[in-house]
Amino acid sequence: MAFVPLWFILITVLWAGFFVLEGFDMGVGMLHGVLGKDEAGRRAVMSTIGPLWDGNEVWLVVAGAAMFAAFPGWYATLFSGAYLAIVLLLVALIVRGVSFEYRGKSPAERWRSTWSRLLIVASFVAPLVIGIALGDLLRGLPIGANHEYTGNFWDLLQPYSILVGVALVSLCLLHGSTFIALKTEGALRYRAAKFARRIAPLTALLVLAFISWTHVTAGGGAFLNPVEFLAILAVLFAWGVVRSHEGWAFTATTFAIALSIITIFVDLYPRVMVSSTNPAYSLTVYNSASTPYSLKVMTVVALVFLPIVLAYQAWTYFVFRRRISDKSFRPSLTTRPAVSATAAMASEQAGQGATQTGRVVPPPPPSSGRGRGRSRGRWRRLLAGQGRRGGRA
Hints:
The chain is an all-alpha fold and 393 residues long. A two-stranded antiparallel ribbon has the order 1-2. 38% of the residues are buried. It contains 13 helices and 2 strands, in the order ααααααααααββααα. The protein is globular, with a radius of gyration of 30 Å. Helices cover 73% and strands 1% of the residues.
């Protein structure tokens, strides 16, 4: 049974990795309409995660698949009990993806503003719902002796769980704002850093309340465990350096959001779902795990493919590491007037030619290219033909 705690650790890492990577995606989604004061600014903010967001969501898929394969009892009870909440989460994730793809399909202001609002709402709902679900694992849900959920949707909305969800939303906002400051330049960078400075105190207070309540809920002693202490230290460090060092601030928010997720799983182990009906009915890593052979095969597969996935994702971040400016999304102010002036000049010359000769004059031949000689020949023949018809007339 040595593979059982190993897979609990791997699932913890997958959930923490999901929030580290998708956390700033959610933050960018919520902030693109706030920090982007115009269309060019909003496009620039969204472009910071354009090549990354869909790959980051893979961590959620892998975390869910790992729960299904390694702990099918846990997966069955959680996903059946939180069915409506999971449907709401899936709708939010689908709307986010569609918003990224469809927002730029039309230049109409109403079209783009509608998709922007949907992106903001979906980016807020997703971490809130996941945070509530993670909080319910530790706080406890009505679970019977046969490990079946016996409550309803409203039993999921407990004060502690809501606090976990709100704290994760705030962490995503801080994480996303530091990421935008790290990836943009000019006014966008300044506004992102300013927003991070403003939300850092609130995030620190929410994380402090979340960690303290988690410690009490888990029945800890008088002192925090090392993970809880490091989570508080990380968010306080982010608050301290967000004013001057955006790189260190992003690193600190990365540790803060990862350690906050790890705190829940550390205080939960060896349980995976606490029963509020009777503690004896709680699901543990041992009474909900797959067979040893299944866990062994999964371990071999993970050892082969997980390093490949990590290497590919690291390479993706390296390729798209440059900063982005909203100037790249503004229309050029030099090429369009030149084209318009050329078109107007050609139209004016064609009008003058028609007025002077009383007949339609074709456009002048091209001034360069291989067809220059042939075009001139056609031009002379056409004018000669018009002259002969004019003489006969």
